[in-house]
Design goal:
The protein is mainly α and 151 residues long. It has 5 helices and no strands. It has one domain: Ferritin, CATH 1.20.1260.10. Helix 1 runs antiparallel to helix 2 and helix 1 runs antiparallel to helix 4.
Length: 151
């Protein structure tokens, strides 16, 4: 079984990734044109916030201190999104493409964590959240594909 500190690090990595996703979806919701897309992005941000709370509880249960910020890569990505949004007009399609890139990153992080040798309750939580990230990724991809066909 993985060392307790490694388990805490894995969970904190997922918290950081999730913080990045929550921030990203809130930004996308602010920029979306279509009301239903705004709602989708806002709902996803809210779901991620709930997932973060579960991950933080798991860190505490392992005797660790939960992470409270996003990743450095996420900060760079957020900065890039902000710069790009000031120099280009955001379309709902471009926002969906940005959301899919973010979900690709989240999927990679959760898949990596799921491959770790984790205690059963932590494994169950990671796998449950991985399924949620996969569903959300697929939904965003479907919306993007639909928007592409309409363009």
């Amino acid at each position: 079984m993985t060392d307790r500190n490694d388990v805490i690090d894995t969970l904190n990595d997922l918290i950081e990734t999730s913080h990045d996703g929550e921030y990203g979806f809130r930004e996308l919701a602010d920029r979306a044109q279509a009301p239903e897309l705004k709602q989708t992005f806002q709902r996803r941000a809210d779901e991620i916030r709930a997932s973060v709370a579960e991950l933080k509880s798991a860190v505490t249960a392992q005797g660790g201190k939960p992470e409270d910020s996003g990743t450095a890569a996420g900060a760079l990505h957020r900065g890039w999104v902000a710069v790009r949004s000031t120099i280009t007009t955001s379309t709902d399609l471009s926002l969906l493409e940005e959301a899919e890139r973010g979900e690709d990153s989240a999927l990679a992080s959760f898949r990596k964590a799921a491959k770790q040798d984790l205690p059963a309750p932590v494994r169950a939580l990671v796998e449950q959240q991985l399924q949620g990230v996969q569903r959300n990724h697929d939904q965003i991809k479907q919306l993007r594909d639909s928007k592409k066909q309409m363009s």
